[in-house]
Amino acid sequence: MKKLIIHADDFNLTFGINLGIIKAFKEGIARSTSIMINLPGIEHSISLLRENPKLDIGLHVNLTFGKPILNPREALSLIDQEGFFYRKINLLMQKACALEIEKEIIAQVKKARSLKLNISHLDSHHHLHKEKEVMEIFKKIARKEDLALRANNLKMKSQHLLIY
Questions:
Q1: Res. 160: pLDDT tops 70
Q2: What is the Cα–Cα distance from 47 to 3, expressed in whole angstroms?
Q3: Does the global pTM surpass 0.85?
Q4: Which domains does the chain have, with CATH numbers?
Q5: Rounded Cα gap, residues 81 and 159, in angstroms
Q6: Pairing of strands 7-11, 56-61
Q7: In sequence order, which residues have a C-beta less than 8 Å from that of residue 139 and are 6 or more positions away?
Q8: What's the whole-number mean pLDDT along residues 1-12?
């Protein structure tokens, strides 16, 4: 049996996006969202999610916008001189250390869980997990944390990586 899941990512990117996703859930067909845990405004975002407990929540792993959850000294290869993530994926991939990517993703998962979010899956901002090196890290963490991983191409779907 095939399923269609209408998913709206970028929750917590802006107040307006949050309200739009909640409206699409309440009045439309969206049934799933994924939250960017490292951005300001998280308290308001969490309150909206708590008011809508039937909305499925994933973690929208973010390594290209804002600041890391990790202490900046632990994420030096992921950030610029001002402490912000590199905005362009190609620049991030040139500079990033795989171990720091893994640590930051784990930190984001732990942060989501510390906020009592019952996350069901992982995906990534700007589809970062389509990058081969990053995909392997995502697979490892998804398995270890018992989370689904959103497929972003047909090859992933054929490998049955799409669980949710």
A1: no
A2: 29
A3: yes
A4: 7-158 (3.20.20.370)
A5: 39
A6: unpaired
A7: 149, 161
A8: 88
Token digits for 43? 């308290």
Element holding 61 (H helix, E strand): strand 56-61
Q: What is the pLDDT of residues 34-59, one digit of tens each?
A: 999 999 999 999 999 999 999 999 99
For residue 155, name the pLDDT band (cuts at 50, 70, 90).
low
88: helix, coil or strand?
Answer: coil
Question: Which comes out higher in pLDDT, residue 120 or 151?
Answer: 120
SS3 content of the chain, % helix, strand, coil (to 5): 50, 15, 40
Q: Which amino acid type is present at position 121? A: H
> Contact, 36 vs 125, CB < 8 A?
yes
Quote the mean pLDDT of the chain. 91
Centroid of chain to Cα 49: 15
| Sheet strand arrangement including 56-61 | 7-11, 32-35, 56-61, 121-124, 148-149
Alpha helices in 83-159 (DSSP H): 89-95, 98-114, 132-145, 154-158
